[in-house]
Structures are given as C-alpha cells and as structure tokens.
Write a structure and sequence with these properties.
Radius of gyration: 25 Å
Mean pLDDT: 89
Distance between the termini: 74 Å
Largest sheet: 6 strands, antiparallel
Shape: globular
Order of helices and strands: HEHEEEEEH
C-alpha cells in the first residue's frame, strides 16, 4: 500500500513538473511573440515615417518624440492619435500626424500626413484601409500616384474652397468609379492642415530630452 502511494505521489510530482514546464514554455513563447509583433509594428511605422520625412532631414528619435492628441472631430478617431515630431539641431523640421478618414467607402482609412514647419505638405500615405480593390485602393502608392498630388500643397495652395475632388468643384482628381474614397482622404488631410495652422506652436514644440 505504501509502495502504491509512493508511486502515485511520484507520478503526481512528475505531472506537476511537466505542467509547470509547459506553462513556462507557453508564457515564454507568448512573451517572445508579443515582443516580435511589437518590433515589427515599430519597424513598419518607422519605414512609413521615413518615406515621408527622409532620415537626412532630422536627427531626433521620431518614435520617442511624439505626443498623443484626442480630437475626434478633427482626426476622425475616438482614440487619441499620435503626432510625431521631426527636429534637427533642436529646431522643428516637420510633424507627421496619424489621422483617420472615418468615411471611406468600406470604413475608416488610417493615414499619415507629414507637414513641414512652414505648413507645406511633405506627403500623405494610407497605411491601413479596406477600400475596394481596383477602385478605392488607388490611394495606395503601389496602385497609383494619386496620393502624391498632396506633395507641396498647403492650406492656401490650393485655396481652401478647392480642397475637394473635382466632381465637387475642387482641385483633386477622383477615381474612375470611386469618388467616396478620395473625397474622404482630401477632407481628412484638410482638417489636419487646419489643426496644424491653429496649433503649430504646441505641435512643433521641441522636446529637449529627445532632441
């Protein structure tokens, strides 16, 4: 009887050890996977930021020198959006905002909008969307060059009344068979420019610790 109890105890101990090892491996794997995903997301964002503001134009850490702003009416998101700040020699060079165009044809369109210190657009990118392939996805740079039409534009170039697609009497082209998508992007970019114009000092404030 004592021998059986001893065997049962030993078996239970082995099972317990295996369980602990298993839990440890699962936790370790989850931790490694989570870190890998976070690193991939960081690299993806950095790649997009550098497409808009080339590395030679700034000397700070774009990802570290950022602020969060909650303004659903302007930026189209119920969550705070991130504003990345590019500086060189502790002087403001540009900001990159991450607004959302909430009224795309198939839902929200996440954007990056880079604005020079003087208020001129350096560029716009769509980083996430569900627009119709072959139609609304022309906002992607690998589908068309439409998004480059924002380069060099500003709140006064063209005049604000022409910050619309041509179908609405504005300056910007729409897509064949798809007007809703470009209309949503143009509106989101204009709202971002307006916000920059009225909040420039706050948005370009240099963080000396990250400069």
């Amino acid at each position: 009887m004592a021998s059986n109890n001893k065997k049962m105890f030993s078996a239970g101990l082995v099972l317990g050890l295996f369980s602990l090892v298993g839990i440890g491996l699962v936790s370790f794997t989850h931790s490694i996977t989570h870190e890998k995903i976070a690193e991939n997301e960081r690299l993806f964002m950095l790649k997009n930021l550098r497409e808009l503001v080339p590395e030679n134009l700034y000397d700070n850490d774009l990802l570290a020198d950022s602020i969060e702003i909650l303004n659903p009416e302007t930026f189209g998101s119920e969550q705070a959006i991130t504003i990345y700040r590019a500086t060189k020699n502790q002087q403001p060079i540009a900001i990159i905002a991450s607004p959302v165009a909430p009224d795309g044809y198939n839902g929200s369109i996440k954007l990056l909008v880079a604005i020079k210190e003087n208020g001129e657009l350096m560029g716009v990118r769509a980083v996430s969307h569900h627009e119709t392939p072959g139609l609304g996805d022309a906002i992607d740079t690998n589908k068309s060059d439409w998004v480059y039409s924002f380069n060099g534009r500003s709140i006064t170039n063209p005049d604000v009344k022409f910050w619309r697609v041509k179908r609405d009497g504005g300056h910007f082209d729409q897509f064949t068979g798809a007007t809703i998508t470009p209309r949503a992007v143009v509106k989101a970019v204009l709202k971002t420019l307006r916000y920059y114009q009225t909040n420039k000092e706050r948005l370009t404030h240099v963080n000396r610790e990250n400069g």
